[in-house]
From TrEMBL:
PROSITE patterns, per database record: HTH_TETR_2 (PS50977)
Residue span(s) of domain HTH tetR-type: 18-78
Residues within the DNA-binding region(s): 41-60
Name of this protein: TetR family transcriptional regulator
Keywords: DNA-binding, Transcription, Transcription regulation
């Protein structure tokens, strides 16, 4: 995304303004986790961050602009992929990272709030899509390496495999009160590997995708 395409709050500031951005985004994340998107208020965020409300309005403009920047920061700050030498090892590392994030009281509540908002807010949905696109692209090379090693078939859609790992974890977060633990993460990774080996994620003429 070029600067000319960026909406309010999506251009990362540098220098002294970085501290303000960090404080405001931390405050926005806390407010989202506590009260949800519907009650997110720029004046309250400014108060929490101990910055002037004019600064917040000038830099982010709207609640959706602020949430978009929060998601951008989360994507940028997420841990890089782990490469263990096997597809199962790599995908378990991916699944456990997702599990730890969603099981965290603050982060889990924050993601629930953003997911709920994305169903009715187009700009929030676009920001959420960019967040997941960034994370999927970060981990997709693990799948391509598995193709190159001969672990899974040529033509496997790497992005679909990565999505398949986290999908059951998000489903459990949103539909169940059961604890989201490492065992659930490992099962998600094992299922994705088994499906990939069976050719479930082949692209185009190579399969069904």
């Amino acid at each position: 995304m070029g600067i000319e395409d960026a909406g309010p709050g999506t251009v990362r500031p540098g220098g002294r303004t970085a501290r303000v951005r960090a404080s405001v985004l931390r405050a926005a994340g806390d407010a989202l986790a506590e009260h949800g998107f519907a009650h997110l208020d720029l004046v309250d965020v400014a108060r929490r961050a101990e910055v002037g409300k004019t600064t917040v309005y000038r830099r982010w403009g709207t609640v959706t602009g602020l949430v978009a920047d929060l998601l951008l920061e989360m994507a940028e700050e997420s841990l890089p992929r782990t490469e263990t030498g096997s597809l199962l090892g790599d995908l378990k590392a991916n699944a456990r990272l997702v599990q730890r994030t969603l099981a965290d009281p603050r982060q889990g509540a924050l993601f629930k709030a953003v997911l709920a908002a994305a169903t009715g807010e187009e700009k929030t949905a676009e920001a959420l899509h960019r967040f997941y696109d960034t994370r999927v692209k970060e981990w997709a090379p693990c799948v391509q390496q598995a193709v190159d090693r001969g672990e899974i078939p040529q033509g496997t859609d790497a992005h679909e495999v990565i999505r398949a790992v986290s999908a059951p974890l998000y489903y459990r977060l949103l539909t169940s009160a059961d604890r989201l633990d490492e065992a659930a993460a490992d099962r998600a990774a094992e299922a994705a590997v088994a499906a990939a080996r069976a050719g479930a994620y082949l692209r185009g003429d190579d399969g069904h995708a």
